[in-house]
Each structure stands twice: as C-alpha cells, then as structure tokens.
Amino acid sequence: MRLGVRLGVAVLTAALALLVPGVPAQAHNTLRSASPARDATLTSAPVEVTLEFMDELDPAFATVVLTGADRRRIATGDPVVAGARSTVQVTGAMANGTYTVAYRVVSVDGHPLQGSYLFTVADPTAGGDAGAATVESHDGPGVGLLVAGGALAALAVAAAGLGWRRRRVGR
What we know:
Blueprint: H1 3-19, E1 31-35, E2 41-42, E3 48-53, E4 57-68, E5 80-82, E6 85-89, E7 97-107, E8 112-121, H2 143-169
Parallel strand pairs: 2-8
Antiparallel strand pairs: 1-3, 3-6, 4-7, 5-6, 7-8
Helix pairs in contact: 1-2
C-alpha cells in the first residue's frame, strides 16, 4: 500500500477508535415513559412521579429527586420499585413553576442510568412561582463530538484519496 493510503487508513481508524467507545450501548436500559411527562404543563401539582424504563430495575439502587427551579428539593417518599417502574409520592407543596425530575437507577444487569427532565405546574387557582427552568443533562457523547468525528473521518478519507489520485495522474 502507498504511504497516503496507509496514512488515511490510520487516521480513519484512530478517529473511529475515539468515537466508538463513547456511543452508548443499545442494550442498556432507557426511560420508556414518565408521569408527569417530559415538558408537560399540568393544571395541578402531581401527587406522584412515576418513571417506567425498558428493563427491570434493581430496587436497592433507585433514586428520584424532584426540585424546583430554585434547586430546592420538593419532599417525596422513598422510591417504590416494581419491575421496570419506579414511583415516588410527592409530599411537599408545589407552587406554580417549572420543576425538574432527576433520576439515577441501576438495572438488574448492573448498568446505571441517570437523567433528568422538566415539567411545569400552571394551576390557575394557585399562586406563586417556582422560578425559571433548570438545565437538563443526558448521558453519552454530544452531537457536536459525533459530527466533528465524522467530519474528521471524511477529511482523512478525502485526503488519502486525493494523494492516491495525484500519484496515479503523475505517472
């Protein structure tokens, strides 16, 4: 193989090696549904938060935290896990505003999963405001990292092809 082709293959292999370990495995657990739902606007405060996952949960390792936009925790009961579902009873008062549900669970296969989402309480008969929205976080690589890696790989292939073509034309 010519040097340009080998260099292109090496760069492409390095780029793929950097990207592949960062992509979450498809076999791991994911959040199937939630109540209140992500980005929902409720006309009254919920009495419980229920999260349903694709795979069964380990009851010993389930955490669900409810916070207002001021980052203060809203009182809840302990998580009750039944199969792939985790539920907490909301025992604290909730005024109108935006709330964050944050969770960290472990599947029975031992893989942890964490995430968060927002919902809003907009009870027309209640007063108060829990404040502005909080930031949402997710696991896994950012879209920017994946796009940059793909662009780097395409650039390496194009450079290797251009080098091969120049040598071939120069003969």
